């Protein structure tokens, strides 16, 4: 996650170099990870035309329910006695679940491995430090799981996916604090894996400060350097099994050279339709799947080369409305990236997620996505390939995440390039 530069403030602050004992930190505390089960709901049409007790002129009739609706039948929401309302899903809503529970769990674990473990460099995991450019690009942790959990926990019947689904209102939901405690926990786990997984060390990052009110209602400035070591802050996380650490995606048992299969005309009707990255005209609307042939700067890199530098897939110039939820997934060397139910855990490279920010300046957001692909190339047996087939699959118009009134015909543009670099 990109750190933020402090805002200017015309107020007196109390500097702190380290946290002092207080009534709120008497001893080390522990935060546990609790799994929240998702109900498995199959597609069904729900009609609410026959709801009884819907009083004429009821000022809150058809309002969003206070309690979760019962998907099995229509009925009143959990409201005070004498108040009638409609708690059914809108007629146009559909919830589709194509995966079995086991498939979903396996896929989730592999995605977590890819997002947390594969992106081993600080700039890839946390994003570029703010200050280099207006939108420096968020890291893998902020995209998934951070961003999607915000949207999943938001109320999709609300215009702006409040509360958790929009940054301006997320803090109103108590789960916000558990969610960010878990994000901090995953940051701690990432640092424990070794290698280049370390916090930023430049003074600009470490000395960036944020203003808070303490338990005595005194305004204090807390610097980033004060918040990097949980031991010094006198708290820890419960030691539990972390299955996604052992869930590195495995190649398919029958893995063909898909890039060659797609790029040559061995009976493949659409082979000639895959353009090279240099021939794609940008800006390019990402309102449908985009597949491009991207050259690599160097192939057959040695183990020493890979340990010293990461091969990075870069999508630059992602332009979008920051008030809208936007997501696209990135796949490498897979012709099935758009087929529902396809097993894509190995070919999945990463995702871009934008959580809406309703109370913003209204300006377009232009940012960048960086994805580590060293491990991915090993899994795909593609280290000797001259180029890679990169597929971007937009999800911004998907029913699973959007209220019908909150969709635009085109969610985003790619206005610079798709490129592979070594850094």
Mind explaining what this structure looks like?
The strands form 4 sheets. This protein has a 4-stranded antiparallel beta sheet. Residues 1-66, 73-80, 82-96, 253-259, 265-271 and 397-409 have low confidence and may be disordered. The chain has 423 residues and is α+β, with helices and mostly antiparallel strands. It has 8 helices and 13 strands. It is globular and about 65 Å long. It has helices at 101-118, 122-125, 140-153, 175-192, 203-206, 258-263, 303-308, 374-379; strands at 14-15, 29-31, 209-213, 219-223, 235-237, 284-285, 290-295, 311-321, 326-332, 348-354, 364-372, 387-394, 412-422.
Rg over C-alpha atoms, rounded to the nearest angstrom: 24 Å
Total number of helices = 8
Which outline best applies?
Answer: globular
Question: Which structural class best describes the helix and strand composition?
Answer: alpha+beta
Main beta sheet strand tally, sense and closure? 4 strands, antiparallel
Query: Main sheet: which strands, in order across?
Result: 6-13-8-11
How many β-strand runs? 13
Average pLDDT reading? 74
Question: Strand content of the residues, in percent?
Answer: 15-25%
The amount of helix comes to 10-25%
Topology as H/E string?
Answer: EEHHHHHEEEHEEHEEEEHEE
Counting copies of identical and different chains, the oligomeric state is single chain
Question: CA-to-CA gap between the ends?
Answer: 19 Å
Catalogue the unreliable spans. Answer: 1-66, 73-80, 82-96, 253-259, 265-271, 397-409
